[in-house]
Structures are given as C-alpha cells and as structure tokens.
Amino acid sequence: xxxxxxxxxxxxxxxxxxxxxxxxxxxxxxxxxxxxxxxxxxxxxxxxxxxxxxxxxxxxxxxxxxxxxxxxxxxxxxxxxxxxxxxxxxxxxxxxxxxxxxxxxxxxxxxxxxxxxxxxxxxxxxxxxxxxxxxxxxxxxxxxxxxxxxxxxxxxxxxxxxxxxxxxxxxxxxxxxxxxxxxxxxx
Length: 187
Known about the structure:
Helix content: 25-40%
Oligomer: single chain
Radius of gyration: 26 Å
Number of strands: 5
C-alpha cells in the first residue's frame, strides 16, 4: 500500500516549510488545514483563525490545547528557589519562630518542611492566603491549603516544600518540628 498523507494533505516525511515555507510556531496554513479543512483548499495558503467559523466544541478543544501547551511550557521552580520565596513571604508577614527542616533523603513527600507561628488565628490564616497568592503570582502555581478556616494549624502543600503555620499554643502542643529535626539539632 502507498504511504498515506497527513491531515494537511502533505506527503509523509515533508513539513509545511518544505512545501510552502510556513512558520510552525504560528497558526499556519498546514495547521489550519489539518484542524479546519476547507472545501476546495487544494494547496497551502495562510488561514487565520478569525477566518474560520468554529463550533463551540472545536473552540473548547483548541482552548484546551492552548492551555496544555502553556502548562507544558511553564517550568516550576526548584525546591531551593521555592523555599527562599516561602521564607521571604513568611518573614514579610511577621511570622515568628520560622524553622526550615531539610527532608531530602528522609522523606518522599517533599524536600523541605517549614514550620512557623502567627500570633492569632487571623494572622495565621492571612499568612497562608498571602503565601498562596505570592506563589501563584511569582510561579503560576496553585497550592493546596488545609485548615485556613480555623486558623489554628494551616498546612500549605506546595509540592517540594510543605509549610505548617500554627498559633503558638497549638505549635507547642504538637511539637511537629521536633519529630522531623535531626537528633541533636537545636530549635
């Protein structure tokens, strides 16, 4: 059997640049022909997205493709950069007794743990909210937050760094950092 042409109509092994000089980074004739075949389109010619009438389903597919491409292009910060940003945010918000614990080689759930205190439930919840907003604006990343509504103990999971924010009394009761710090380490 003979080789089958791709959806744009080009012979296998050829690109749009081989045939018509299209730029692959833009919505070009070959991409447009593949996604939006027009009757009578016998050769490549530039087709702009505005020239094509799309169904709502086709628009949703294109939007999903665009989001997937943007997400793939985003690079998440390394754990040290993320840790530095978190420590800076907590310091800016007047977090108290900020402790960082290196978990590399000791745990699979993250590289670092940060434990800090706020003076009240309101401050603890505000520090968590501001940290999430700063990380979203700086790195385009969403974090998971647990416990913000009560504000006694808030857990912020950023992936590589896990942050625990406490009211001082709750932190003293659980003594979380004492479980994770290497033996003999001072507070």
